[in-house]
Design goal:
The chain has 8 helices and no strands. It is mainly α. The chain has 2 domains: about 55 residues, no CATH class; about 60 residues, no CATH class. The longest helix is centred in the middle third of the chain and has 14 residues. The chain is extended.
């Protein structure tokens, strides 16, 4: 945030710096100004994404979400645990509905820009 305040916005948005935040929100407890640092980091990331700066791992998850309606496919172990605890089969995802929502929010264009 300090780099942006100092006029280094383009440097911040083109590097991996915005992606180092773990989104743990510990900063909320520690900020002496009471600032919402976490939300600021999300805003900075959104700006970086609009410029096509998306780390490969996040881009892969985003593409998975668009293609399968899920970020992560449940493992066999997770499916076995669902059965064990009486949760039944994995929930069915209506991929077409997910894609419709993602298209309406221009998510599909953002992830294609990051490729």
């Amino acid at each position: 945030m300090e780099m942006i305040i100092l006029g280094l916005r383009s440097d911040v948005l083109s590097e991996q710096l915005p992606w180092y935040c773990l989104s743990c929100f510990t900063c909320l407890d520690r900020c002496p100004q009471g600032g919402d640092v976490g939300e600021t980091m999300f805003a900075i990331r959104n700006l970086a994404v609009r410029q096509g700066n998306i780390p490969e791992g996040i881009l892969a998850q985003a593409k998975n979400l668009f293609e399968n309606g899920r970020v992560v496919t449940p493992s066999r172990m997770a499916l076995a645990q669902r059965e064990k605890y009486g949760l039944g089969r994995e929930p069915v995802v209506d991929v077409e509905i997910v894609q419709k929502i993602l298209r309406r929010t221009s998510f599909d264009r953002l992830i294609n820009k990051g490729s």
